[in-house]
Specification:
The protein is α+β, with helices and mostly antiparallel strands. It has 2 domains: 22-147 and 413-525, GROEL, domain 1, CATH 1.10.560.10; 224-373, GroEL (3-Layer(bba) Sandwich). Helices cover 46% and strands 19% of the residues. The chain contains 17 helices and 23 strands. Strands 11, 12, 13, 14, 15, 16 and 17 form a 7-stranded mixed sheet that branches. The N and C termini lie close together (7 Å). 45% of the residues are buried.
C-alpha cells in the first residue's frame, strides 16, 4: 500500500494492493530487465550467430535469428521489455535491418549507466553524456561513409550478402541467388523523386511464400502473384496479352441501406423480380465486356449469375482481392482502380503479358506477369519446410530494407564491428576534452558500442578481450581504420577489402534508437502498478514488484 505522511497524518494515495518501485530500486529493475532482453538476442548476432526456437501456446514453432521476430514473438510482460520490443519494431519499420544491433547496444548502454548510477552520477548527467556521444558518433560515421548508387551492382550484392550472412537459409550460392532477386526487385520499383533522388517503396515489393519445392525454385515475378483462384470453373485458366480491369465494385445486387419489404402475390411477380435481378447483373457484365477487358480483379464479391455471364464472355474474374493487392496490381499493370462501372473505359485498363492460374502445392494461385515496366513486383519464395520458408521471407524483408536504405541514402560503411571500434576511439578522444560527469558517460557509451565486435568474436569462438585489444591497436594506425572481425577465418582483417559493408542509414538509426530508448528508461524513477476495480490482481507487466512506501 502506498501512503504519504504530513503532520503525522497518513494519507492514502494509491488503493490497497498497489505496487510501487521508486528511486534507485526502480532504475536498477528497469536496467536489469532491459539488459536481460538484449542478452537473449545477443548470441544471434553475425554470420555465426545462433538461432532461437519460439513455441507459442498453441504449439506453433518459429525458428529464427532475426532480432525483430524473436522480440515480437516473445510474450513479454514487463513494460521495459515492451519498450525494448518497440526499439526493434521501429528499426525494422524504418530501415528493415539492424534490429539485433539496436537492441544489443541499448542493453549495453543501460548496463553501463547502472554502473555510473552506483558511482553516484545522476541520471541527467548520464543522459546528457549519451546524447553528446550520439552526436559525435553520427558525425564520425558520416565522415567515414563511402558513396554508393543503384548502378553499383557489386556493392549492392555485397550489402545483400552481408544481410543474408547471418540467416540459416542454405548455401552461399543460394544466398547469392536471393541477393540478385532482391536487387532486381529494388531496381524495378525504383523511381526518381525530387532533386533526382532515388525513391523506393518497399510495399510494392511483395514477398509471397508457399511450402513445396526447394529454395532454388524461388523466383522473381515481373508482376504480382495473387493467392486466389479464378472464381468460375468455366472461365479460361490462362490469358495472354491480358487487358486488366481493377474494380472496387460489387458485381452483385446490393442490399438496401434501409429495411425494405417486397410483397409478391403471384409466381409471375416472383419470376419478374428474378428476371430483373438477372438483367441488372447482365448489364454490369456488358459494361465490362464493352470496355474490352479480358481479365478483371474485383475487390468485393461477384454474384453467381454474374460469374456465369463473365464466363460466357470469356473473361477471367478473380474476387475478394485485398486492397493492398489491388494497389500492387495497379502499379504493376498500369490499370486504374474503378469505383463505378459507368466510368470504366478502355483507357482505364492495364496490361500483362500473361495472366495464368497455376496449382502450387495443391492450391490455386493467379500469376499476373510479363508486365511492361511494372512498379510493383513479387518474389515468390519456395522451400521444403514451413519454418525455412518463413525464415527466407524474413531474410528477404531484411535484405530489401538494407538495399533500400543504401540506395536512398547513397552511403555505406564497413561492417564486422569496424565502425563501432572507430567510433569508440573517437569518443574516447572527445571525452578527454569534456569536463564534468558527462565525460564518464561518453566513455561508457564508447564501451557500450564495443559490445558488437565482442559479440561477433564470441560467436566465432575468438577471445573477445584479446580481439578487441587488437582492433583498438589497429585502428590507431591510418591503414587500420577499416579493420573488423573476419568471423570465417577467426582473425581481424580489412573489411573494405573483404567487401563486408552495410548501409550507413541502418547504423545511424540503430544508434539513434538505442540512445533515445536508454535515455527514456533512465528517466524513470517511479513505477506504479495498481489493482483493477475488481481487486483480482494487478495488470501484467510488473511482476515481482514489492510494496514500498
Amino acid at each position: 500500500m502506498a501512503e504519504n505522511q504530513l503532520g503525522g497524518q497518513q494519507y492514502l494515495i494509491l488503493p490497497e494492493g498497489a505496487n510501487r518501485l521508486i528511486g534507485k530500486e526502480a532504475q536498477r529493475t528497469n536496467i536489469a530487465v532491459g539488459y536481460a532482453v538484449a542478452s537473449i538476442i545477443r548470441t544471434t548476432l553475425g554470420p555465426k550467430g545462433m538461432d532461437k526456437m519460439l513455441v507459442s501456446e498453441l504449439g506453433d514453432i518459429v525458428i529464427t535469428n532475426d532480432g525483430a521476430t524473436i522480440l515480437e514473438e516473445m510474450n513479454v510482460e514487463h513494460p521495459i521489455a515492451k519498450i525494448m520490443v518497440e526499439i526493434a519494431k521501429t528499426q525494422d519499420k524504418e530501415v528493415g535491418d539492424g534490429t539485433t544491433s539496436a537492441v544489443i547496444i541499448t542493453g549495453e548502454l543501460l548496463k553501463n549507466a547502472g554502473n555510473l548510477l552506483d558511482q553516484g552520477i545522476p541520471p541527467a548527467a548520464i543522459i546528457k553524456g549519451y546524447e553528446m556521444a550520439q552526436g559525435v558518433s553520427i558525425e564520425t560515421l558520416k565522415s567515414i561513409a563511402s558513396p554508393i548508387s543503384i548502378t553499383d551492382d557489386d556493392k549492392l550484392e555485397r550489402i545483400a550478402m552481408i544481410s543474408l550472412g547471418s540467416k540459416n537459409i542454405g548455401t552461399d550460392e543460394t544466398k547469392k541467388t536471393l541477393s540478385k532477386l532482391a536487387i532486381q526487385a529494388i531496381k524495378q520499383v525504383a523511381t526518381k523523386g525530387e532533386n533526382g533522388k532515388i525513391v523506393i517503396d518497399r510495399d510494392f515489393i511483395k514477398v509471397e511464400k508457399k511450402e513445396g519445392g526447394s529454395i532454388e525454385n524461388t523466383e522473381f515475378i515481373n508482376g504480382v502473384l495473387i493467392d486466389k483462384e479464378i472464381s468460375h470453373p468455366g472461365m479460361p485458366r490462362s490469358k495472354k496479352d491480358a487487358k486488366i480491369a481493377l474494380l472496387d465494385v460489387a458485381l452483385e445486387i446490393e442490399k438496401t441501406e434501409t429495411d425494405a419489404r417486397i410483397e409478391i402475390t403471384s409466381p409471375e411477380q416472383m419470376q419478374a423480380f428474378l428476371n430483373q435481378e438477372e438483367k441488372m447483373l447482365k448489364t454490369m457484365v456488358e459494361k465490362i465486356s464493352n470496355s474490352k477487358s479480358t481479365v478483371i480483379f474485383v475487390q468485393k464479391g461477384i454474384d453467381d449469375v454474374a460469374q456465369h455471364y463473365l464466363s460466357k464472355a470469356g473473361i477471367i474474374a478473380v474476387r475478394r482481392i485485398k486492397k493492398s493487392d489491388m494497389e500492387k496490381l495497379s502499379k504493376a499493370t498500369g490499370a486504374k482502380i474503378i469505383t463505378s462501372l459507368d466510368d470504366l473505359t478502355e483507357s482505364d485498363l492495364g496490361y500483362a503479358g500473361l495472366v495464368e492460374e497455376r496449382k502450387i502445392s495443391g492450391e490455386q494461385m493467379v500469376f499476373v506477369e510479363k508486365c511492361k515496366d511494372p512498379k510493383s513486383v513479387t518474389i515468390f519464395v519456395r522451400s521444403g519446410a514451413k519454418q525455412t520458408t518463413d525464415e527466407i521471407q524474413r531474410a528477404l524483408n531484411d535484405v530489401l530494407g538494407a538495399l533500400t536504405s543504401a540506395v536512398e541514402d547513397g552511403k555505406y560503411i564497413t561492417g564486422g564491428g569496424s565502425e563501432e571500434v572507430a567510433i569508440a576511439l573517437k569518443l574516447r578522444e572527445s571525452a578527454t576534452n569534456i569536463g564534468g560527469r558527462e565525460q564518464l558517460a561518453i566513455q561508457a557509451f564508447a564501451d557500450a558500442l564495443e559490445v558488437i565486435p565482442k559479440a561477433l568474436a564470441e560467436s566465432a569462438g575468438m577471445d573477445p578481450i584479446e580481439t578487441l585489444v587488437q582492433l583498438r591497436s589497429k585502428h590507431k594506425s591510418a591503414e587500420g581504420k577499416y579493420y573488423g572481425i573476419d568471423v570465417y577465418k577467426n582473425v581481424i582483417a580489412d573489411m573494405e577489402k573483404l567487401g563486408v559493408i552495410e548501409p550507413l542509414k541502418v547504423k545511424l538509426q540503430a544508434l539513434t534508437s538505442a540512445t533515445e530508448a536508454s535515455g527514456a528508461i533512465l528517466r524513470i524513477d517511479d513505477m506504479i502498478s495498481s489493482r483493477g476495480k475488481s481487486g483480482a490482481g494487478g495488470p501484467p507487466g510488473m511482476p515481482g514488484m514489492g510494496e514500498s512506501d
